[in-house]
Amino acid sequence: MSFFRRPDYSSETSQFIDSLKKADPDLEKKQRQGRLLLWDQPMNAKLWDEFDQGKVPQKPYVYLTNA
Fold first, then answer.
1. With DSSP H G I counted as helix, E B as strand and the rest as coil, what are the percentages for the chain, rounded to 5?
2. How many CB atoms are closer than 10 A to CB 17?
3. Which three-class secondary structure state does DSSP give residue 5?
4. CA–CA separation, 20 vs 7, rounded Å?
5. In Å, how far are 16, 19, 27, 28 from 22, measured between CA atoms?
6. Would you say the pTM of this structure is higher than 0.70?
7. How does pLDDT run across 6-38, given as a tens digit for each residue?
8. What Cα–Cα distance (Å) separates residue 23 from each residue in 13, 19, 30?
9. In the prediction, which pLDDT does 67 show?
10. Are residues 21 and 28 in contact, defined by beta-carbon separation less than 8 angstroms?
11. Is the CB of residue 21 less than 8 Å from the CB of residue 27?
């Protein structure tokens, strides 16, 4: 048995998350649906090509001014 083992320890954060999941069993499903709205979208290759064409070359040292 390890000297550092804390068998029944659960942080306040873990307890809070567990209580949220018990109060709303569909919480993870709702989170996944929310993620689908913004993050898990297919990439638009044409749009990314347009972004790349619009880039302006950056100076080696961006804080150096021409003044």
1. 50, 0, 50
2. 13
3. coil
4. 23
5. 10, 5, 9, 11
6. no
7. 778 889 999 999 999 999 999 999 999 999 988
8. 15, 6, 13
9. 57
10. yes
11. yes
Q: Which residue type, as a one-letter code, is found at position 33?
A: Q
Rounded CA gap, 31 and 35, in Å? 6
Between 54 and 60, residue with greater pLDDT: 54
Alpha-carbon distance of 48 to 64, in angstroms, equals: 30
**What 3 state SS string does 51-62 have?**
HHHCCCCCCCCC
Encoded amino acid at 54, one letter: G
Residues ≥6 apart with Cβ < 8 Å to 24: 30
